[in-house]
Amino acid sequence: MQFNQELIFLAAEKTALAQAEGNFARKVAVLFLAEPNSAANREFIAKVLSAANLNLQQDTLFAELPAHEPVSIAPDLKERKPGHVLVFGISPAQLGLSIQISLYQPTAFYGATWLFADSLSTLEPDKNRKSQLWNGIKTMFL
Question: Which ranges of the chain would DSSP assign to H, the alpha helix?
Answer without folding.
Answer: 38-51, 56-59, 74-80, 120-123, 127-141
